[in-house]
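Handover notes (outgoing to incoming on-call)

Open items:
1. Transposase Helix-turn-helix domain-containing protein: sequence verified, structure written out, both below. Nothing else pending on this one.
2. Nothing else urgent.
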Amino acid sequence: MEGQETQPLPSAPDNAGREEDMETETSGDDGAPMGNADEQQNCTMCGLRLKEIIRLQEENRKLKGELSKKALDEKFLKDNDSKVKFYTGLPSFSLLMGVLMQIIPSLPKSETKERKLSHFQMLVLTLMRLRLDLPVEHVAHRFDISRQTASNLFIETINVLHAHLSPLVYWPKRHCIQASMPHQYVEMFGNRVTVIIDCFKLFIERAQKLHAKAQTYSNYKSRHTMKYLIDITPQGTISFISKGWGCMPAISRSQRTVAFFRSSRLET
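Transposase Helix-turn-helix domain-containing protein structure tokens:
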């Protein structure tokens, strides 16, 4: 209307421009918010990390399984009597565990800082070396220990085995032998047979001391050996075994003979 002043329109609030600026700043070229893109990228990275963790866990599990198959422990020999017989000479795993339970109280403390082997592995190490005639160096590498540690464990375990198992080797009474004499012996020899005597040699590693080298070297075998006198009853049990002797013929023969008759206590 004429004569009336035109009222100015209210100005837009300042926040509107700011909101537009914020929308512009938080939007990408494709119109997607920048915050959502970062979240998607983080989710993708998390998924990749999770897949990598799962892959590493699976690889670790497989490597542990392969390592456990090569470790000479209870799992390696359990439920496999053929392995037990090959490595230890004992016919079954149950018998191996029976021997272990018998000698455990006398074995040195295992799995210390110097000894990484369990009592079971100490026994297996000793029986393996006896059964397969393995050098100390090879046994040390097989059990991942030093040569000196392997040698010490072998000596300690063999002494414990001797203390516990040597009573099993004894000279039976004559009437006990004759009561269960196989008929083949009775037919051929009557009651005159008590034991079958034999002498055998074992190859040994070269000793460090010069005197021991001279005592054990065999000119006939061209190697270092130890001699043993052994006798077996007609039933097949070992009733006597002498100490090991060197290769000095006259001395060792007389010593073995004296030791045999002292231990046998033959009836005349």
